[in-house]
Structure formats: C-alpha cells, structure tokens
Amino acid sequence: MSTPGTPAVPQPVAGAAAIRVRALHKSFGRNEVLKGIDFHVDQGQVVCVIGPSGSGKSTLLRCVNRLEEPDSGQIIVEGIDICDPETDLDAVRARIGMVFQQFNLFPHMTVLQNLVVAQRKVLKRSKAEAVETARANLAKVGLAEKEKAFPGHLSGGQQQRVAIARALSMNPDMMLFDEPTSALDPELVGDVLDVMKTLASEGMTMMVVTHEMGFAREVGDKLVFMDGGVIVEEGDPVEVLANPRHERTQAFLSKVL
Ligand code: ADP
Ligand code: MG
C-alpha cells in the first residue's frame, strides 16, 4: 500500500520481459541516433549488441535506465514503463546494474568502501550487511584479498572486476555492460569475460555491448547488430556470425572477425 504523497515503489510484473523497447527514437540536436528501435531481453537471457562505432549502441543502453532521455517510444523494464512520469525511477534503476568501459570507481576509497557506499546510501543496508555482501561479491570475482587496496593499485582487469562486484552488491535483477573489456590490455580481457560467463550461467539477465565475438557466440542467447541507429539484424549468435543475411552485417563482420 502506498501512502499519499510518496511514489509507489513499482514491483516487477511476473512473466514480463526483463527489457522491452518499442519504437525508440533519440536525437542529439539534428543528429538522429536511434531511429526506431524495437527489441526485448527475456528474463535470464544474454543479449549481445554489436555494431560499428557511432551506431547508437551506448545511447540505446543508456536509454534502458534513462541515463539518456528518449524522444519517443517505450521502454518497459520488468513490466514497468520507465518513461511514465509516475514511475519511481530510482527504484527501477536500483534493479539494473551497469558496467561501463571506464570503471568509474572512487579513487580515494578502498575496494571494500567502493562496494559498500551505494548499498548504505541507496539500499539503506546496515554496515555489517553491506560489508558481508561486498565480501561475497569480491570473492565471486576472485578479488577477496584486494578489499583494502585502492583502485589505482589494481590492474585494469581487476578494476573492472571490482566494478562488476560493486554492481552485483546491489542485487540487481539484470546487468547492462557497455564494452566492459574495450579499455583493457588483451591479457586482462579473459578474466573479466570469465566473470561475465559465470554470471550468465547463474541465470543473470544481461545486455552486453561488446566487440568480443567469441563471448557473443559462446554465451549470448541473442545477437543484435546495429548500424546507423537501427537494428539491421538479430538472431541466434552462432547463426548470425556464421551466416549474416544482411550486406551491412557481412561487411562489419568481415572487418572484425
Ligand atoms: P556507439 O556506442 O555505437 O559507438 P553512441 O551511442 O555512443 O554510439 O553514439 C551514437 C551517436 O550519438 C554518435 O554520433 C555520437 O557522437 C552521438 N552522441 C552520443 N552521445 C551524445 C551526446 N551526449 N551528445 C551529443 N551527441 C551524442
Ligand atoms: Mg559506445
């Protein structure tokens, strides 16, 4: 029951897709970046998004938790319309973990503090519970022994695993990744992908913008190819990568594979 004057905290609708996007349009000034995007991510699915630089992948991902404001269209997260002004956006966002190319850790905080702060502030967890959750997630990404380290003393791959552990510490229903391994030295990519594979195998719903075609093929349930602000082609990753139907997909894959 909601009290008058306080927004109702929206609860996920049973059976709804994790993410459903309909006719999404977004321009920056005169630059139309998303030209009518329709797609969905089912609960427990891993959807990988590929496409050339500037095709709108990051903008799409950022629209899903309204870091970008769509111009028109619908974004439904777990059955809740997140563009509805009545929706408590913070409550929806708390269920969506986000991991960026740049890890965005607080440099002046230890690894443990980085994982604790949002749990305390946003979820109002007790210190003991936040620390316990943080430690469990650090162990999960293989960095239990680094809790007292400062981010600057870690490798890029370790920092990204900390960023993943931080997102997981909020117990999200789904995770959005925007090129999580693109800023990493090649030898550090595998450890981050391994953590993501584990998450996927545990049933985490994931939307992953990536250039790692091996990951998309092995882990993805669906592959979406974007170019010029539209979804050109989507389907089973093995199928799309082996037999792209569209000329534009073929041209892109011939450059990256
Ligand atoms: P991708 O992630 O596929 O490389 P982006 O979604 O980052 O593509 O960008 C798509 C287009 O939108 C690019 O032309 C980019 O310059 C433009 N763009 C992205 N973010 C902004 C912004 N905040 N302001 C203006 N233009 C932007
Ligand atoms: Mg991008």
Topology diagram in text:
Elements: E1 19-28, E2 31-41, E3 46-50, H1 57-64, E4 72-77, E5 80-81, H2 89-93, E6 96-99, H3 111-121, H4 127-140, H5 156-168, E7 174-178, H6 186-201, E8 205-209, H7 213-219, E9 222-227, E10 230-235, H8 237-242, H9 247-256
Parallel strand pairs: 3-8, 3-9, 6-7, 7-8
Antiparallel strand pairs: 1-2, 1-4, 4-5, 9-10
Helix pairs in contact: 3-4, 3-5, 4-5, 5-6
The protein binds adenosine-5'-diphosphate and magnesium ion.
The site of magnesium ion has 4 residues, from helix 1.
Indicate the overall shape.
Answer: globular
Rg, Å, rounded: 19 Å
How many individual helices?
A: 9
Estimate the strand proportion: 15-25%
> H/E order of the elements?
EEEHEEHEHHHEHEHEEHH
- Major sheet strand order: 6-7-8-3-9-10
- What is the averaged pLDDT score? 95
**What structural class do helix, strand and pairing data support?**
alpha/beta
* N-C termini distance: 53 Å
Bound molecules: adenosine-5'-diphosphate, magnesium ion
Main pleated sheet: 6 strands, mixed
Helix proportion: 25-40%
What is the total tally of β strands?
Answer: 10
Indicate the low-confidence ranges by residue numbers.
Answer: none
